[in-house]
Each structure stands twice: as structure tokens, then as C-alpha cells.
Amino acid sequence: MPAPPPAAPSRFDAVLLDLDGTLVDSLADLRTALNETLAREGLPPVGAAAMRAMVGDGAVALLRRALRASGGDPGRAPALLPAFLAVYEPLAAAGTPLFPGAAAAVRDLRTAGYALAIVTNKPARATGLILDAVGLAPLIDTVVGGDTLPERKPDPAPLREALRRLGVAPGRAVMVGDMHHDIAAARAAGTAAILARYGYGRLEDAEDADAVLDDIGGLRAMIGALPAGRAPVS
Fold first, then answer.
1. Based on the domain organization, do 113 and 64 belong to the same domain?
2. 20 annotated binding-site participant
């Protein structure tokens, strides 16, 4: 784990970052692994446009949606997860790029003194492989993946676990993600919320965000201008 950073020069101490659609563009590799898994089931592939609407809620949910769209049995999703991950994990480590400016933005946050966590619905092993491959692992204090806890975003439990590990109160943290479940989890946990509009979400996902980010290069400045985190939703 990186050495504890100095105190952040803002009203916030920590930034919780989603991965897919926020820091990395993983759609092509996810689709390759997904379609190989579907082919083994004798099912047709998922197109690029349809794929974009399926991601965000974890691998089992992705498989379930793809099976339903391809005429398969969505109930097969848990059983197909190991085969899907066996195809996907090598791709995730080698072929998923950072969004332009993402590495510099994360380094900028680290230099500014923020504690950093990845909070994603992607399985933790695949997350770690990607962070290593893109060079961000040394900058991240902790990772909460989609299989770290029984709950996933939009449940606030993954955010609360990240904050527990960092020793940061919810009102002193910002969640940054590209999907509705990132914003919903932030609201429930009591953190501030920034929607990465360049990612895989929808325009309406911005409705309950504190701010909307169109270029990740502006993340540090946006965090500096945010009000404190909201009270948790009961």
C-alpha cells in the first residue's frame, strides 16, 4: 500500500473512483470475452451498441443481460461466470486502455494529498490486473471490487468499506463514477458525487450528482469547488 498522503488541501480527504467507464475503457475487451462465452453456449454475439447498455452492475449481471438478449437462459449466468472470467482476465490485463488524461488525473489527486480508492462492481482480481497493467496500482490505497462484499453498488456498502479502510468520514469523501449506481451509492453513503459523463452511463444519471465531469483532466479542480458531502439517504 502507498505511504499515507499528506492532508488534502480541500474540504475533502478521499476520492473514491469507479473503474470501467471512469478510468478505463473496457467495452471492447468485455465484449470479446462475453461473445466467446455466448458462442460456447451456441448463442449469437452481442453488438457494440447493445453491449454499452449492459455493463456496470458486475459480471453476473452482464452475463444475465447478454443471455437474455441472445435468447439464452439468464439463469445460467452464475454457472458461466468462471468461464467468462477465464477468457476476460487475460484481456483485461493487456487490452483495456486508460481514458486520455486519466493517469495524469490520478497522479494529480495523489500529489494533492487525497487518499484514493477504487470502488467498482468488477471482480477484484480483474480490477487488480488492470490497475497493474495501466500503471495505477502504486497510486491507489485500497480496492473494493464487486466480489469483495456480498453487496455491490448501488448499495452503499462498498463505499462504506472503502471509507472504513481509509479512515475517512463520508462527508469528507467524493465518489466519481459514470453510472446511475455510482451516484445512488454515493447519496446513500453520504459522500459527494461526481458523474463522469464521458463514460457508459446515460444523461439522466446526472440528475442527482453534485457535479458533472466531461473531461477527467478537470477532476481535481472540480473536487476543489464542490460543497461538502450530503447527509446519507435514509
1. no
2. yes
